[in-house]
Amino acid sequence: MKKIKNINHHDLCLAAIKISEQIKKDFPTNKKLYCYPIPRGGIACAYLVGNYLYDKLVFVDDVKIADIIIDDIEDSGQTRERITAKNTTAKFYSLFNAVDFDCWISFPFERGLDNHEYGISTELNRLAEFTGFTVTDIKKRLGINDE
Q: Residues 60-71: pLDDT tens digits?
């Protein structure tokens, strides 16, 4: 099982500042930028980046009209590939890159008040509620072995 790295609020803010500085360099004018935040983690991250850009971002629900795309983490690159195929001119930013870590990254917006990890078990429960399958059925279908 992979180790878990809990990203704290301070780390998240530092990463958002770094990305906002990069966006300022990439888009040096005061022109408003249409920003598509990748659901789910990218939404919180994009709003945080937006705080450091002083009203430069306009959040949009359609990736096709976006100037920039923001995500929380780039893992395998599949999200970037899938999203940028819909808009080849938008610049893609992620606050973190999985290549920089040899562990599972957990963000503050993924944890509860007691620092409880929501992670995969919560996602399996949500998937079970949505599909009507049991968690055991889903694990079998996905080849997840609890041993």
A: 999 999 999 999
d(CA 135, CA 114): 24
Distance CA 146, CA 35 (A): 40
Report pLDDT for 90: 97
Burial of 69 (0-12, 13-18, 19+ CB in 10 A): buried
Q: Where are the beta strands (DSSP E) in 30-103?
A: 33-37, 57-59, 68-74, 91-97
Write the single-letter amino acid at 29: T
DSSP 121: H
Two structure tokens written together for 37: 């935040």
Scanning the structure block, which residue is given the tokens 């195929």? Answer: 85
Token pair for residue 69?
Answer: 């795309």
Please say whether the beta carbons of 111 and 88 come within 8 A: no
Q: Which of 79, 61, 82, 62 lies closest to 71, judged by CA?
A: 79
